[in-house]
Amino acid sequence: MPPENRRHVTDVSAMRALANPVRYRIFGHLMAQGPRTASECAAVVGASPSNCSYHLRELGRYGLVERVEDGVADGRERRWRSTATGYRFGPRDGEAADPAARFASVQLAHLGIEDESALAHGAIDAHAELEAPWQAAETMATYGLRVTAEELLELGTAVDDLLRPFIGLTRDGAPTEARAVHASFRAFLLPGDE
pTM for the whole thing? Predict the structure, then answer.
């Protein structure tokens, strides 16, 4: 299995660079699919290959992605990859952050939720066209939990431990029928709960 390389990005400029919806989608595509060209990204994000090439260079400028050195001369056909297998953005927990870093990380979190929502809506629209095993396998469950902060931390850690062996960028020997799947786990105190 390739080594896991998770990064915590606190640089405000890098977060601002990623806070562009097209860049965010390209970045997510590389994280899910592995190395891709600007042309391949364009087909997914609905932008031109030259526009995607520009956005990939911007992400590269901040160290979020890098070119795959494979000797291809045409810029649109050069492959790009994420520089890490996982990211966390924003101030470190318990760290006093400057207002710009806090604002950038909040905006990035909102963009992530919007992007995830768009992916979920697309999955719902495509569900009826899937093969029966994939229809049965998909899930969009929600749960109303009553837990302590410690239990929530334990639950989040257990879910992370369960999912980590299946991460596409680090999984060796995936079955040939394996496909890219978006999985998320969000758990937060309900606003207004006392």
Answer: 0.83
